[in-house]
């Protein structure tokens, strides 16, 4: 990592300056950063069923009439999102020392993988998940803020990368579990290392050709350091204007994560081409494929009325919940189609929301607006985790249809 002679350098310095002939470097770097930032988060959710089963023992009293463990994967979801929620709440209001944040992300993400890999209790496993969540939340807030120094198309590649994390994270964990959960998580330590390579080597400094944008962002960051109280008050005043982005995004995430962590492990279609014990993993993979496809779509088309995704996702909640209760869908491939649709809606809501924020906010407000809007998805996911635990246990107690 380079040495820094002042706070300004610590905030802004990166590797060689990007020019108009090499915009691909920032696009590629942001895709990789999105992939690495969300990778651990996705892996922990995909591994949630295994983490719980590894520590639940074989006590019959822990299971309901449907042979489901009362501690749902919603518990892992809460551990995987609450630290991110806290850091996303704080990050927009603290000085933007980007290199310190990125280094902290890499160290904490690595510690999370190692802790879960060597865990022998559910408490230790959840602690590892918490560390991974901290990295994901800090990384998302940091990279979204830093994107204000670049062309808004980096938001498209960032969103695509986070979608790619879903596919590669869920699929790689599902495939690599043949080596056991411990070895799989240790192999994945390559991901935090790749994040560092992408940020400090591949990502160029913001282009000096766009002096107006750079000077505005430098002025904003300097004001935050010199007069933090005034900066904090000004940021609080900006939040109401962001609600038109935050409320639709938060509700979409509430609905989709309730589906994923409240119903997926309860849906068991027997005598089909995928064994019931593997269906949870493949539904997660399928969902992430939908997210990846839609998060990669904004340069082809974008949707201004983002509230429509909330409405459509609510209908999915009804469908998946009733299926978990009554088992009326006859084939697993139908579930895969519906889950792909659910993922497409979630990914589209994310990328179109941040594209609108980047396009519609003033330059001096862009850093804060992008970071603050990211807080809303964590609120939705947190609420989803709480509701998922309650609903999961109620359905567990229901007799089989």
TrEMBL record:
It comes from the Eukaryota. It is a multi-pass membrane protein. Keywords: Lysosome, Membrane, Transmembrane, Transmembrane helix, Transport. The chain crosses the membrane at residues 28-48, 68-87, 93-118, 125-146, 158-178, 185-203, 301-320, 332-351, 371-391. Its main location: membrane. Belongs to the battenin family. InterPro entries: Battenin_disease_Cln3, Battenin_disease_Cln3_subgr, MFS_trans_sf. The lineage of its organism: Eukaryota, Metazoa, Ecdysozoa, Arthropoda, Hexapoda. It comes from Cryptolaemus montrouzieri. Gene3D superfamilies: MFS general substrate transporter like domains. This is Battenin. GO terms for cellular component: endomembrane system; lysosomal membrane. The keyword Membrane applies. It is found in: Endomembrane system; Lysosome membrane.
